[in-house]
Structures are given as C-alpha cells and as structure tokens.
Amino acid sequence: MLEKAIKGSALYWIWLLVLLAVIGVGFGAYLQQLDQGLSVTALNRDISWGLYIAQLTFLVGVAASAVMMVIPMYLHNHKAFARMLILGEFMAVATIIMCLLFVVVDLGQPQRLWNVVLYPTPSSVLFWDMVVLNGYLFLNILIGWVTLQAERKRVGPPRWIKPFIYLSIPWAISIHTVTAFLYAGLPGRDFWLTASMAPSFLASAFAAGPALLILLAFAVKIFAKWDPGREAIQSLAKIVTYALAAYLFLIGCKIFTAAYSMVPDKLAHWEYLYFGLEGHTMLSVFMWVSTVAGVSALLILLFPKNRQADNILAFACVLVLISTWIEKGMGLITAGFVPTPMKEVLTYAPTGPEILITLGIYGIGFLIITVLWKVGIGVRKEIEAT
Amino acid sequence: MYDANKIIPGLIIFALFMTFPFWYNLGADAYSTPELELPEDYEKCIESTEFMRAEHMNMLDEWRDLYVRDGYQEYWSELKQESYPMSLTKTCMDCHSDKEKFCDRCHDATAVDPYCWDCHIEP
Amino acid sequence: MKNSRRKFIKIAGMAALGWSICPSLAGARSGPRQSENRLRADRWAMVIDSEKLNDEIMDKCIEACHKLHNVPEIPNDQNIKWIWKEPFYNLFSDQSHGYLKDKKSLPFLTLCNHCDNPPCVRVCPTQATFSRDDGIVLMDFHRCIGCRFCMAGCPYGSRSFNYYDPRKFLDDDELDHDYPTREMGVVEKCEFCAHLVDQGEMPACVEASEGAILFGDLNDPNSDVRKVLQERYSLLRKPKLGTDPQVYYLI
C-alpha cells in the first residue's frame, strides 16, 4: 500500500519538500543542542521543563482523537466513522511519534535512553509513560494497517484484531492519565498536585484531538478531493463541544478551589498565570487569549446551526486548538514551576534553537500524517471507485 | 527478469554499501600492536597482565557500580596481597600516570573512545 | 546414572548459590572490600545551628564543598549549587510571619535534605538517584539520562542540571583530582560527602563550619545530633510534605 505515498501531485511534493526543509532546520538546531547541551534553551535551575515537555503533554492529548471514533463505532455501532477512522488512527501514530521525539530532545543524555529499559523502575511514572506511549503507538500502527489492508481486499477485518481494538480504548485513556500523573504526584508542586489533573487532561484531549481532526478533514476535502463524510464531521463536532465544556468546567473547578480557599501555595500559581507576579506578566497575556478563545469556541459550538456551517465550525476548531495549546503547551508547565520552591518568580521564554527544534518535530509529525493519510485516502478512493 | 533496470543497480548499491568498511580502509596502515609505556617502579598490576588486558573495562565497570552504588571502597588484590581504592584516578592512574602513553595508544589503535575522562581527571 | 546426574545438578546448584552469597568461600579471593575506616550510621542527619552561623562561616562551607566537588561557578540561572545561602523567609515561608523582622531576610545555609522518603528517588526512571541504607541520597552520574524528573520532584530546589559542559567554567589548574567533574546533561546535588564518610572523614562543610554544623547518627541516642535536637528547638523545611527531611535547623 505504501506505493500510494510516492505517487502524488506537484502540490503534494512541494508540501513534502517544505516539511523536509523545516525538519532540516530543526535538525540543525538539534545538532547545536547536542554540541552545547541544553544551555541553548531558556530552561534553568528553577524552570527545568519547558517547551519540549509541554508539547509532549499537548500532543498526548491530540493522539486521543482516534479513540473518540473507536468508541462510537465499535461499542455503539455508529457507522458514520467507518470511512474516517483510519485517519484518526494514523494521526495518533504521528502524534505519538512526536511525543516520543519531544521526550528525546529534552534529555540531557539521549544516548543513554536505553537505561530506562535496562533498569526498569516501576515507581517512576516516566517509566510507565514510556510503556503506555510505545504501546499505544504499536496498537495504532497494527490496527490501522491491518484494517486498511482488509478493506483494500474488500473483506472484513480479521477476527484476531478485535481484542486489540477493544484494548486500544482503555489504552488511549491510559496515555493521558499516566502523562497527567507525571505532574499530579509531585509533592511541593501545588499547581499540579490535584486529582483533577488526569480528568482535565482527558477533557482537553478530547476537545483538541477531534478539533484538529475536523480541520485536517476539511483540508483533505480541498486538497485530496475526498470527503470524509458530513455525518462523521458533525459527530466529531458534537464530541468537541461536550469535551470543551468539560475542559472549561474543570479549569473553573481548579480556579475555585485555589481562589476560595485562598491558600497561598495554591493561589500564587493562578495569580502568576492570569495576572502575573512581581512584574512577570508575559504568560498572563497568553492565558487570557486561551480563556477567551476557549469560552468563545464553546459559545459558538453550543448552537447546532453554527456547527453545521463548515466555515464557522472550522473557525471554532481553530479557537479550540489555540485555547488548549496555550493552556497545555505554555501555561501548565511554567506555572507549575513558578513561584519556585524558594518563592521566586521568573519568566520562561523559549530561545530560538528551542523553537526551531520544536517546529522540526512538528514537521516530522505532519510529514508522517501526510504520507499515512495519502495511503489511507488512496485506498479508500480505490475502494469507493469500484 | 522484470524491472531489471531497477533491481540490478539497487543490488549493486546495496552491495557497495554493505562492504563500505572494507573498501573505506583500503590502503590504510596495517594494524600493529601499539607499544605501551609501562610504569617503571612496579612489576605487577593488581591482576595478571592477560586478565587486565582482556577485562580492565569490565573491571572498571564493576568498580563504578560497587563504589558508587553498593558502598564498597577497596579492592583486595590476591596477586599483590594488598588493598587498593576502587578508583580509576587513585589506583590505575597512580601507576599508569601518562594517559597518552598508556591508555590512548591502545584505545586509538582499536578505535575506541571511552568517555571516562569526560569527568574523571587525568593526572 | 540418572541418580548421579541429579546429584551433580544438586551439588552444582548449591555451589552456585553459595558462591553468589559469599564469593570469598569459593576461592575467588580478589574482590571488593569495605574500608575499615568507614564511618557507619543507621541514619545520617545534619543539624545546622543558626546561632553559630555567620556570613563568613557560610562562605567557608560553600567554598570547601564546591572546591572539593569541582562545582563550577556559572554566572547565570543555569548554574549549579550544592550548598548555598538563601534568606530565612524563602526556606521557611510556611513557618514565618511578617513580624520576623530580623530573621526574615537573614541568610541561611541550605542543601539537599537527604529525605527519608525522597520524591527524587521515587520518580527517577533509571535509579540513577537512590537512597543508601544509611539514609544518604546519592547520584550515579554514569546512569543519569538527564530527564530532570527529579528536579520537578524535589520540593526544596536542591538539584542542579548541567546545562553546560562544567569544565568550561572550571580552572584546569584548580581541579580537585580526587573527585570527578560532571559531564553535560546530568543532574547533580549534595551527597553528604558520602565518599569522605566512607573513608572515615566528616563532610567538608561540617569540617569548615567551626562547629556550626553537626553531622551524626540520628538512631544513636548518644550522638551529638540526637542530644542537641532533644535540648533545643529546631525547624525542618516543609515537614508537611511527608518527605521526612534530615537537615535540621536549630533556631
């Protein structure tokens, strides 16, 4: 089936070249980081995780979109997703690969990565994160490839794949839960030390993942001349709406707990996040954008008429992505570290190399999505033409 | 054969690629056993020469775990009937004090690049 | 035949078991030993006497430690600290109030607390940081992958990461040859001078402190640290977190 990836229009090849250029620049920046160490980043003694780990956190969420189609389709026999499911699974493959790359570029000694396997440590959540991320990657490659191959031969998927499909549902939940537990179990980081971490990860994941999927589906409609189906997109839009409401609700719950209890250790992080402390206000500007974007998206999506208009739906999905990306990709990590254990307030603004490496990894992710979707859509077109 | 024009060049490229180490080293100097400068004041190392030649890297690897993690500090040498600190710098390099004329000569000849001295300080 | 083979396997098995428990009995005489001078304790603890500390002594302690361990001085926020000065309020913000005029901005010494229940050890994915039986929390620089989970896990900010190659900031002529430098990309912190303790010496900061820092076995009722903790009032950093820190501050 892979041969479908090497036959494409000029536009397809130009797009791949653009992505390769971005990847090349990112790789160059990574070579610089390997040479000079993480000193090329804006990370420091107090804010020891930043842009890279934040992208891991955000993208683990995006990888969930597949399961939001697997559940309706396999547990509730909702057939509208049958044509599109493969796209969700392939997107999960690409995002999980990005997640793993973001872990690797964050390491000070990446060549020792294998130590995690040589000295398995069940008490470390990072060990479990490695297990669940790799497991989810494997499941999605396996399920995606086997079902697509079966469809191409115009037979039903083999029976042995069913248990893997059912397994992928709790497994998708586990990747968010375990990633949230990276933070939620640390004493002394009051911003993260809350039981609502995993639920709010799941909520924002089920909003961001399907929102990105809707946008990419629209792109496919334009560039690949293939329509994933109106009903599928409308179902996804409903999922985004519910998940977005839950995500905003959980943020509200967290803010209430901190603001009403007025416990300084909790409250200070939220003050820093939304108002800034001691003149460090850079992050708060973004956080207001995030909140306004999230609330506006919800107000738009609540009305079925808006969801049914493609343009408005696409706009709302962009707002959802902006909101969740700022919240996970910028706010969550920095605000967990600031104020520091010594009550100091700092600003974290990623450096050029850090941003280039991040863009490079996004380039790899989009390259994988493009190639895999080319294959998936090529096969679907072939089936539907006959 | 179908597609012979693609398969045969492909096979040639593959064969060239797999034999890269051989033709890359064509014309390079033949391997000669490096000459090491041994410490003058001592006759024996803590274990036999054969053992040290074959096993010194494993010994150091064990030492670092024993010293750093398991709380052992010394190595009793049956050969010398004496205890030595389990330490690259305090024991090994106390006698073999010239890294360039001892460690490096073999390591260079066999193209290995141990990272011991990234942290441990040579005398 | 069958019987003798079974017997042979049995004997070989016992021998292997015996050898693994006590290799010296099997004739493998060369091997690791513990130093005779080694100081032993059930639970090492440190007591810092704020009455006896002053700026000069603190600087001496810091210098002794950082020189002994080849800790580089890096002039930005990607720096390395094993033991350093921090205002009282920053260390004990949950145990102070606005009218502590004198103490509030007073500098105190701080270092790794060598917790009994250390979060850094719990979160490390490779056991590169670990607790010894005598309570010292150590780093294995050979194994650290530089993920910095331990830095997020430590509630005391006691850990530093080598963002740079530390040798760039160290003078080659002033290196302490008995202790390694670190390489780029690993985490480091105070080790209660385990390497000195194992050779029968006291930690460097204790030696330099002119009696302001005590170090001893908390489980020994006759030790200096136990006695002074019974007699005088002391503080711990963030005791409510349950990490059970083992650096006590006499007030």
UniProtKB/TrEMBL annotation, chain B:
Alphabetic keyword roster: Membrane, Transmembrane, Transmembrane helix
Segments traversing the membrane: 7-24
Recorded superkingdom: Bacteria
The protein's name: Cytochrome c family protein
Species in which this protein is naturally found: Desulfonatronospira thiodismutans ASO3-1
UniProtKB/TrEMBL annotation, chain C:
CDD domains: PsrB (cd10551)
Pfam family, one: Fer4_11
One Gene Ontology term of the molecular function aspect: metal ion binding
Domain of life assignment: Bacteria
Keyword Iron-sulfur: yes
InterPro entries to which the protein is assigned, alphabetical: 4Fe4S_Fe-S-bd, 4Fe4S_Fe_S_CS, DsrO-like, ET_IronSulfur_Cluster-Binding, TAT_signal
Signal peptide start-end: 1-26
Domain 4Fe-4S ferredoxin-type, residue spans: 135-164
Key words, A-Z: 4Fe-4S, Iron, Iron-sulfur, Metal-binding, Signal
PANTHER family with a match to the protein in the record: PROTEIN NRFC, PROTEIN NRFC HOMOLOG
NCBIfam families for this protein: DsrO
Record-given protein name: 4Fe-4S ferredoxin iron-sulfur binding domain protein
